[in-house]
Amino acid sequence: MRRHIAATLVAGLWCVSSAFAGPAGVVTSASPEATAAGVEILERGGNAIDAAVAVQFALGVTEPAMSGIGGQTQIILKRPGEAPLVINGTSFAPGNLPDQVEPSDLVTGWRSMTVPSTVRVMDFAHRHYGSGTLDWASLLAPSVRLAEGGFVIGQFRAKVYASQADAIRKSSTAGEFALMPDGSPPPRGHVLRQPVLAATLRRLAEFGAEEFYTGEIARQIVADMQAYGGWITAEDLASTPDPVVMAPLKTNYRDAEVYSLPPPAGGWVMLLALSMLNEIPADRLSAEDAGRADLLVQALARAHRARHDMPESDLVHYEADIAARLSQENAVELVKGFVPPGGETTHFSVVDRDGMVVSVTASIDSYFGSKVVSPKLGFFYNNYMQSFDLEPGRPFSLKPRGMAYSSMSSTIATRNGEAILVLGSPGSERIISTVAQTVSHWFDVGQGIEQSVAAPRVHVAVDKRDGRDNVYQEVPVEGLDIARLGLDSVTPSDTYIQNGLNAYFGGVHALALEESGWTGAADPRRDGAVGYADLRK
Question: Could you tell me the CA-to-CA distances from 85 to 195, 347, 501, 516 in Å, in that order?
């Protein structure tokens, strides 16, 4: 079922339209409200980055369990006639870590957060890649309105609140921001207003991004840390660097080039899976049957196993290592080994009138991150500290100002130098599996981006307890013999089933250049929507 937002606001209601976009800008995100914010900015003359800033802040209001100003953000973008580039917004561990750390401290609570980077990243993107037409305050205005006036909780978001209610009740500060007055989770259809967060966003809009790192907001963050025993200091906030602009990683797929995020993100693992699938004739992947599922499982198993057994050797000087892994020679060798036939995150994508495309993945890591909220600021902090390895001497070992492990795989595909596909997904390690098979489906099955996003998925993960490879199927594939591949079949969680599909397998928000022009798709597993801007306004 399509969920498209037309660009005309009539009587306060967004009209639903199935029209494809020709030259118009398109936004697809995980909430209708955030999509509408992006469309508003495009119609006011903003470009794709301007719209992305508005969408990101609006998602922090309308999908607070997944992302927000307490988290981190990664961006890959492409301007017409230029090569894609990455704005690497990874977050860092605090600088004053104690010598001894309790593992439980890193999962929830006031010691579980890295230094938030989202505000810095979005400000940098706006200053360097925005249109220059709209100022910072204009881009934050939709999120301020949403926090103050409220938004209607959708089906998927209601399930998230319900599933996390017990954990939130245990928090010293989160209950009043995520539960009803009687302690119950807000139901579907409830209008959630966040006046404390609205005040914080209003300060950010008025005083700029630096307010978060050296201003009154920063002082309140430090006061929170001192009051509750957190590790983030004023120095950590003030020294938060601008994100690094860098080249994305690349592999070939069919007649296109596919670009994704470098370490510490998981783009290379997704590209490794695609590089293997690219060595398999497309006709063997063109039908939605057991044969395709078999090949997907084998490629995903080898890709995830590669990161588990041989993680990135260096998070800064990784070029030679990753290039060897993504080489055609390595892909051929991995395919030779195929058995013959027998938390939480958000993603959004934007294209503007000039053809600039932006793919953004942002997160506070687990659902509701650290499960703690700044009482006077109204946002959830991330819990990316849990992603560090407590064993010393490894790439993701816990250390002061270390980079957090991530599976983010924001992706752009090009043909003859022009963008043709923009996508990404939330879902922890399932991001990698989800993005790879959505790309393959669009190229190989050829049913269009909406069908590719809605197609049932599989995932393969290394079991951290026994090292076995576990296979998860969204919909059981008739004829797929997991045991034949030497793998274990595991039933996925059914907590977030919606429209007959399972949000455990991610939430892709994609744009594709198809015969009718740029077409958007919002994953039916979640509450998202596609918006088409009317650029004649």
Answer: 37, 17, 33, 27
- Strand ranges inside 326-436, DSSP E: 345-351, 357-363, 411-415, 418-423
φ/ψ of residue 117, rounded to 5: -115, -10
Mean pLDDT, rounded, for 120-146: 99
Which residues in 128-139 are b (16+ Cβ under 10 Å) and which e?
A: ebbbeebebebb
Distances in Å between the Cα of 407 and the Cα atoms of 345, 362, 504 are 10, 11, 15
pLDDT band for position 295 (50/70/90)? very high
Percent of the chain past pLDDT 70, that is, above it, reads 94
Please name the amino acid found at residue 213.
Answer: Y
The CATH code of the domain at 245-346+407-528 is 3.60.20
> Above 60 in pLDDT, residue 455?
yes
Tally the C-alpha atoms within 13 A of residue 19's C-alpha that lie toward its C-beta: 17
Domain ranges for the chain, please list them.
Answer: 4-78+89-240+351-387, 245-346+407-528
The torsion of the CA quartet 168, 363, 128, 49, rounded to 10 degrees, works out to -100
Structure confidence at residue 135 (pLDDT): 98
- Angle (CA) 396-399-400 rounded to 5° is 130
> Given a cut of 50, is residue 8 above it in pLDDT?
no
Q: Transcribe 49-94 into DSSP letters.
A: HHHHHHHHHHHHHHSTTT--TTSEEEEEEE-TTS--EEEE---B--
Q: Give the pLDDT score at 38.
A: 98
Give the per-residue pLDDT at 252: 97
Whether cis (ω within 30° of 0) applies to the bond prior to 80 is no
In sequence order, what are the residues at sequence separation of 6 or more whose Cβ sits closer than 8 angstroms to the Cβ of residue 23? 353, 517, 535
Give the span between the Cα atoms of 279 and 125, in whole angstroms.
36
What letter does residue 482 receive in the DSSP assignment? T
Please give the C-alpha separations between residue 281 and each of 274, 284, 341, 443, 449, in angstroms, as whole numbers: 12, 6, 14, 12, 21
| CA separation for the pair 202, 57 (Å, rounded) | 12
What's the pLDDT score for residue 344? Answer: 66
Distance from CA of residue 291 to its chain's centroid? Answer: 29
Q: What is the pLDDT of residue 13?
A: 28
Mean confidence (pLDDT) of the chain: 92
Q: Helix (H, G, I), strand (E, B), or coil: what is residue 501?
A: strand
For residues 499 and 522, give the distance between their C-alpha atoms in angstroms, rounded to a whole number. 13
Q: What is the pLDDT of residue 3?
A: 47
Largest CA distance in the chain: 64
Length of the chain: 537
At residue 172, does pLDDT exceed 90? Answer: no
Beta-strand runs (E) in 386-455: 411-415, 418-423
Angle formed at CA 9 by CA 7 and CA 11, multiple of 5 degrees:
160
Please report the pLDDT score of residue 343 as a whole number. 64
pLDDT surpasses 70 at 22 = no
**How confident is the model over 388-405, as a mean pLDDT?**
88
